[in-house]
Structures are given as structure tokens and as C-alpha cells.
Design brief:
The complex is a heterodimer of chains A (about 190) and B (about 525). Chain A is mainly α. Helices cover about 60% and strands about 0% of the residues of chain A. The chains are: A mainly alpha (about 190), B alpha/beta (about 525). At the A-B interface, helix 2, helix 4, helix 5 and helix 7 of A face helix 2, helix 4, strand 6, strand 7 and helix 8 of B. Bound molecules: flavin-adenine dinucleotide and iron/sulfur cluster.
Chain lengths: ~190, ~525
């Protein structure tokens, strides 16, 4: 379904789950719940109907069966406060039945992928990944420019029969060096 | 006006009726290699690709956005079994080579010898050598530039060296990889030489045409021979149809989609092998916490592999991944996960073990065309996983790790080198292990005997003249190393054979390969 959104009660469960799972630090004052929920929904939209139904069933299972399965009472997940939701999820992730453990792991992964690849979160953690990528692209563009007119190096010896790395050769890159000698490109490798 | 080389839905109107010498379905490792080879040989070649075309700038740092854009089913693909095994297949121009780690291994000679002994004499090391060489040159299989490794790879190197274990420096298909550590969501620098940067430019330069957003659903046959394909043009505004007539049809949709397409078309049923013999080189992740920062943000995905245990079918490898993916390493959530990552993310090195599997799964089409992908890790392979994870833990401790994280439920954290013994004393079950895989193979295997596989040694289906397969599905078995070079070399071989046949009428099985009359 290309216009998929979690319907009614399921959205409440999904929201409770996301709210409990998004990162919260005392000195990070953003609540990411709604944005992450939107992103999760957008990703689920790309999945086939079969997976969408599967995910909806998993959410329903977490909402109503999570409590009994973890001996944590009958209250549905969406009626619990954040800390209790996390506690219940972690108990499910430690459940003796492997299929039960899968539920929180799968849903948790979906949420964490979104939450922890956000620019604001990465920035807060001191991981300026977007800036790093830009910097790397610029560096590579320069390297490629420097290469212009030079012959490409031949591929090094095939692996399998390849010389192995030793402490002495670890940082020696003969083949690449040869590449930078304009007359040696063909012999490299 | 010269024809466009990349045709998007908005470049055309209405339903499409096309013709060519060879139509190739899929533009990944196998499809793009066949396409370039045949186009350069002078044939009129058309590639149909279900996904879109994304240039370097389109690969962003937003993981869910990229999963939605370039992965099949948004990355939510799973092989069901004793323990589910998530896997990834890309759906874009360049196929899975766009998202792969770039490791370039030739098929080990031992494996090629085995295949030759099974009658596939053209797959011997000598016979394939020139194909391997052509592949490696085209995709720029090289060592990393100095300085691009990063801490995750350096820690791995130090551990293996301290233990005196054999290391192999990876050749990767890259030109000046600058270690952005983003391989899984598409290279943001243009360094990775996926087919989008290697075989496809050759294909386009030779006059080939590629249509994006074209999902092939039907393989058209006439009197038992393949004569074209048809399907849906995934135009966002209006569903449209396309039909292509061709002298030969090459299917290269990958080891899951190819058998599904054949099954939905009820092709290859006689041989009984379509969708069987599914091998996946399962992985389990192992990570380690160090006192000193590792800085996984910086550095390439994988610069080395430890080959000390390759004879046991075990490869150990580092595997740098972005933070978003790192979260899946820990069975903790919410604020506990947030605190852990805030404290430790700079100090965590990620890696994993790859096992050459003995088990075979299968791909099946259920009613309404629903795919079922099934794979059960066996207890024998699980034994290898336990040994492999224990050794990787040993390696990390030798490199100075404070603790090691595993994918085994009851042994999620190993606190000291001494505690590794617990893995052997109380070995985790398959059901208590989280796997992952990136290598899908063998579901329409090549065979010398028509009763033993789906395609003949030329890549042509035993049961359907004119229908060729050229992707990971035709691999005659598991190889124990990363497969893209093998797939490309096999595709090159298939293309060469098809080129020869097209000269003298496509689809003529030589007498010795003919299927005996039923
Ligand atoms: C995360 C990851 C890391 C990897 N790392 C490595 C590595 O380091 N080294 C290595 O050797 N291998 C690696 N691999 C594996 C390697 O990339 C694949 O084995 C290889 O790309 C498979 O080639 P293929 O031709 O079989 O299929 P693909 O490359 O997947 O191409 C199939 C193409 O067919 C298209 N298609 C499918 N169905 C249809 C249809 N019905 N109509 C039209 N088009 C269709 C798909 O969209 C896709 O583009 C990795 C894989 C992954 C997922
Ligand atoms: S590490 Fe970064 S630069 Fe290198 S190939 Fe992978 S994505 Fe490209």
C-alpha cells in the first residue's frame, strides 16, 4: 500500500513504542517522537502489503500480549509510561521463546535506524557524519583530478594466492605507489 | 536524435512495445556484465531494471530514506527458518553492487576444482582466469589508499597480528575510497565501482539502452522458446505496460527474484531445481568495546579479512558501519541504549564472521504470488559460528578490547578472554542466535547434467531454449568468500557463449548438452 499509515489504535501503539525508544538525554531538548514515527511509516510504506500486515500484527501482539507474556499485567502497551514500555520491551527481548524476542528486536531496529541516523542526534553525539561525507567527497574529487592523465594501476595479485599482510608490509602499498610513477603503471601489481 | 541511454518513465508515453537482439532483466552484478559484454560485441541490447537510477549525489546519510529508495521491500526482507535471517537486495540501477562492501575475491581454486569435477569443465581456474582478469580490471579491484582504513580496521589488524593469524588485505572495487563508511546505503563519493560506475558506462558507451522502473512479470515463450518479456512500467502517475521482443532473453534478477520469476511463469518445472539449493553464507555480528577511541565514523567498511580458518569455512572480518546500524548490535532500548551509545559509540569496533554453509534453503512462490524464502541454519554450521565468534572475540581481546558483544542471546556480552570458554561450555542454539546475510546464491544452479540443475554450462535453461540466466542464482554451489567477482566472471562466460550463439541462431543446444527426450 503506497499510502500506508498505521490505522487508529495501531498508530497509538506505534507512537508509544517510538516515544519510548527515541533517544532522550537531559541536555538534548528535542522530542523526536513524531518525526521518527513519520519516518518509520514512510519506510513501511515501501514494504509490500504482506510485510505491512505482518508489522501490524506484531504491533497488535505487543499492545495486548506483551503484558501477559512478560507477566507484567494486562495493561496495553500504549497506556504505559515510557520507562514501563522500555522495561516491558526489554523483558520481551529477553524472553525464553525466540519468536517472542524477535518482535522488539525487529521493531526496535526499525525505530533506531531512523532515530540514530538523524543529523541532530549525530551532531549531539559528536558525529558530524554529513559534514564528514562532504569532506570525503571533496577529498576524493581532488584525488581523482590528480589522477587525470595517469594510467590506472593493474589489479594486484588475486586473493587466495595473495601475499598476506605482515607487520612489515602492513603500510606498504607498492602497487598504489607504482601507480603514481607515470612510467610504472603497467608493471604494477 | 540519438536514443536515450537511460530511459525513465517520464521520457515515454503510453504502453511500450520494444524490440532488440537481447533483453536483459536486472542491472546488478550479473546483468550489467552481460549487457556490456554483448553490447560491445555489437548486439542491440536492452536492459530492464525495476528500480530507479540514482547518481552519486542521491545517496544521502538518512538510513531509512535510503532503505526505502534503493532496497527491495524497504530492506524488510527475511529468510524464515529456525532463526529468521534478514537479508538485503538492492532495487536500483546497479543492483546490489550499489550497496555492497566492495570486497573482491576470486572463486577459491578448491571450489573451481570441485565444480570441474562435477562436469563443469569450463569453470576451472585456468578457463576462468581471463574472465576474472577482465572483471577485476573493469571494476577496479584494488587495495585501499593509505590512510583510508580507519580505527575499526586497525584494531582488527592489531588483534590478528598479535595472535599471528593470517590476514589478507582486501582488494575492493574502488578508486580512491576515502573511508566515508557508508557502503551499505550507497557510496556518497563515487569511489565504489559498482556496476553503475564500471560495467554500465561500458554498456552505454557501446550504445546499450536501459529502461528504469520496468518490472518484468512475464517471460514470453513461443513453442517452448523464450522470445521476449513483458511487465509493468512503474510510472508514478499511471500504471503502464511494456512488451519487449528479443532473440534471446537473459534473466539476472538475483538469487531470490530470478527463481520467483521463473516459478510465477511456470518455467523450468521439469528439472525440479528452480528455487532449490539456496545458500547464503550466513553472518553473525561481533563487536568490541575498547578503552581507546576507535572512531568508527571514519574509515572504510572492511580493509582486511582474517583467513586463518578459511579451511574450516570460517572468515573473520571487521565491518565498519554507521551509528544507525550499530544500534542493532545491542538488545537494549530507549534511554539505556541512548546512554550506552553516548558513552561508548566512539570506542566500539564492529565486525562479524562469515560461514561457508552446508545447509540449503529454498525459494517458493505461494498462492497469490507471495514469496517464501526459507533457510534453516543447521547445527553443524552453528558449531562453526560458535567457533568463529569465539575466535573473533579472542582477536578483539588480543587487540585490547575491554568487552565483546555477540549475537548469541545467552552470551550477549563476553567480559574477559577467560569468559570465551563459556561459549564452548554452553553453546548457543540456532534459535538463540541473530544472523544476517548479504550473499544469496545457487537457486538456479548451473549443471553439466540436465537432471542436476537449471541451466547448462552456457547459462541457458535446460528446459527453455533462448532463456539465459546470469546472476548469483546460477552459482553451482557456495564459495565461502564474497561472490560478486564470481558472479561477474560467470556472467562474462554466459555472455560470450550467447554472443557465439547469436551468430548462428540463438538457443541451439549443442548435441552433447541436449536434454534427453522425456
Ligand atoms: C550489504 C551487502 C554487502 C555485500 N558485500 C559484498 C562484498 O563486499 N563483496 C561481494 O563480492 N559481494 C558482496 N555482496 C553481495 C553482492 O553484491 C551480490 O551477491 C551481487 O550483487 C548479486 O548479483 P546479482 O546479479 O545476482 O543480483 P543483483 O546485484 O541484486 O541485481 C539484480 C537486479 O535485478 C533487478 N530486478 C529484480 N527483479 C526484477 C524484475 N522482475 N524486473 C526488473 N528488474 C528486476 C533488481 O532491482 C536488481 O537491480 C553484498 C551484498 C549486500 C546486500
Ligand atoms: S567506505 Fe565510503 S567512500 Fe569508501 S566505498 Fe564505501 S561508501 Fe564509498
Amino acid at each position: 500500500m503506497k499510502d500506508f499509515v498505521f490505522p487508529g489504535r495501531l498508530r497509538r501503539t506505534a507512537r508509544a513504542l517510538v516515544a519510548a525508544m527515541v533517544p532522550r538525554w537531559d541536555d538534548f531538548d528535542k522530542d523526536l517522537t513524531d518525526e521518527v514515527l513519520d519516518e518509520v511509516e514512510a519506510l513501511v510504506r515501501e514494504m509490500p502489503l504482506f510485510n505491512q500486515i505482518g508489522l501490524s500484527l506484531m504491533l497488535t501482539g505487543l499492545e495486548f500480549a506483551g503484558g501477559p507474556l512478560t507477566l507484567d499485567g494486562l495493561r496495553p502497551l500504549s497506556s504505559l509510561e515510557h520507562a514501563r514500555v522500555v522495561e516491558r520491551i526489554e523483558r520481551l527481548a529477553d524472553h525464553p521463546v525466540p519468536q517472542v524476542r524477535m518482535l522488539p528486536m525487529l521493531l526496535g531496529t526499525l525505530i533506531s535506524f531512523s532515530a540514530y541516523s538523524r543529523e541532530d542526534v549525530e551532531q549531539f553525539l559528536g558525529l558530524p557524519r554529513r559534514a564528514w561525507r562532504r569532506d570525503r567527497k571533496a577529498l576524493r574529487d581532488r584525488l581523482v583530478q590528480l589522477d587525470a592523465g595517469r594510467p590506472a594501476p593493474a589489479p594486484p595479485t588475486p586473493l587466495g594466492g595473495a601475499p598476506e599482510v605482515t607487520p612489515e608490509t602492513y603500510l606498504l602499498f607498492e602497487d598504489e605507489r607504482a601507480h603514481h610513477r607515470p612510467d610504472a603503471g603497467q608493471e604494477a601489481g | 536524435m540519438s536514443p536515450r541511454t537511460i530511459v525513465e518513465p517520464h521520457h515515454t508515453r503510453g504502453d511500450l512495445y520494444l524490440s532488440c537482439d537481447v533483453v536483459i532483466v536486472g542491472s546488478g552484478a550479473g546483468g550489467a556484465t552481460v549487457a556490456a559484454t554483448l553490447a560491445e560485441a555489437g548486439h542491440d541490447v536492452l536492459v530492464l531494471e525495476e528500480g530507479g537510477h540514482y547518481a552519486t549525489e542521491a545517496y544521502t546519510a538518512n538510513i531509512p530514506e535510503m532503505l526505502g529508495k534503493i532496497m527491495r521491500d524497504g530492506g524488510g526482507t527475511v529468510a524464515f527458518g529456525r532463526s529468521p535471517v534478514p537479508y538485503l537486495e538492492a532495487k536500483c540501477v546497479g543492483g546490489t553492487t550499489v550497496v555492497n562492501g566492495g570486497m573482491c575475491w576470486r572463486t577459491p581454486e578448491k571450489i573451481l576444482d570441485e565444480w570441474s569435477e562435477r562436469g563443469l569443465v569450463d569453470l576451472g581456474a585456468k578457463a576462468l582466469d581471463r574472465h576474472f582478469t577482465e572483471v577485476e580490471e573493469t571494476i577496479n579491484a584494488r587495495h585501499q589508499d593509505p590512510g583510508s582504513h580507519g580505527g575499526v580496521n586497525d584494531r582488527f589488524y592489531e588483534g590478528a597480528t598479535a595472535l599471528g593469524w593470517k590476514l589478507s588485505r582486501n582488494r575492493r572495487n574502488q578508486v580512491h575510497c576515502v573511508g566515508s563508511n557508508d557502503c551499505v546505503t550507497g557510496c556518497p563519493s563515487g569511489a565504489k565501482q559498482s556496476t553503475l560506475q564500471s560495467w554500465l558506462p561500458r554498456f552505454w558507451a557501446a550504445g546499450g539502452r536501459l529502461h528504469t522502473h520496468t518490472r518484468v512479470e512475464k517471460i514470453v515463450t513461443r513453442r517452448g522458446r523464450a522470445v521476449g518479456v513483458s511487465g509493468t512500467l512503474l510510472d508514478p502517475y499511471k500504471k503502464r505496460r511494456f512488451t519487449v521482443r528479443a532473440r534471446a532473453v537473459v534473466i539476472a534478477c538475483g538469487a531470490v527474484q530470478t527463481p520467483l520469476l521463473l516459478q510465477r511463469n511456470k518455467l523450468g518445472r521439469e528439472c525440479g531445481h528452480v528455487g532449490k539449493h539456496f545458500t547464503i553464507h550466513p553472518n553473525v555480528k561481533v563487536a568490541a568495546l575498547f578503552d581507546e577511541p576507535v572512531n568508527s565514523l571514519r574509515g572504510t567498511h572492511q580493509a582486511f579479512q582474517c583467513t586463518e580458518f578459511i579451511d574450516e569455512g570460517i572468515l573473520l572480518a571487521p565491518g565498519a558501519i554507521p551509528l544507525g546500524f550499530m544500534t542493532a548490535m545491542f538488545p537494549i532500548f530507549g534511554s539505556r541504549l541512548a546512554e550506552k551509545l553516548r558513552r561508548d559509540h566512539r570506542h566500539i569496533a564492529t565486525g562479524g564472521v562469515l560461514v561457508d554453509d552446508f545447509a540449503e534453503g529454498y525459494i517458493k512462490t505461494l498462492p497469490f504470488g507471495i514469496p517464501l524464502v526459507r533457510y534453516d541454519v543447521t547445527d553443524v554450521d552453528q558449531g562453526k559460528f560458535v567457533r568463529a565468534a569465539a575466535r573473533l572475540a579472542e582477536l578483539y581481546f588480543a587487540a585490547g578490547a575491554r568487552e565483546v558483544y555477540t549475537a548469541f542471546h545467552h552470551h550477549a556480552v563476553i567480559e574477559s578472554p577467560d569468559a570465551i570458554k563459556k561459549l564452548y561450555a554452553d553453546p548457543p542454539r540456532v534459535e538463540d542466535t541473530e544472523y544476517f546475510t548479504a550473499h544469496l546464491m545457487g537457486t538456479c544452479r548451473m549443471s553439466a547434467d540436465p537432471h542436476d540443475g537449471v541451466v547448462d554450462p552456457d547459462g541457458q535453461m535446460w528446459d527453455v531454449p533462448g532463456l539465459y540466466l546470469a546472476d548469483a542464482s546460477i552459482m553451482p554451489g557456495t564459495i565461502g568468500v564474497n561472490p560478486q567477482v564470481t558472479i561477474m566472471a560467470l556472467a562474462r562466460l554466459v555472455a560470450e557463449r550467447l554472443d557465439a550463439r547469436l551468430g548462428r541462431g540463438a538457443g541451439a543446444h549443442s548435441v552433447s548438452m541436449a536434454r534427453p527426450a522425456a
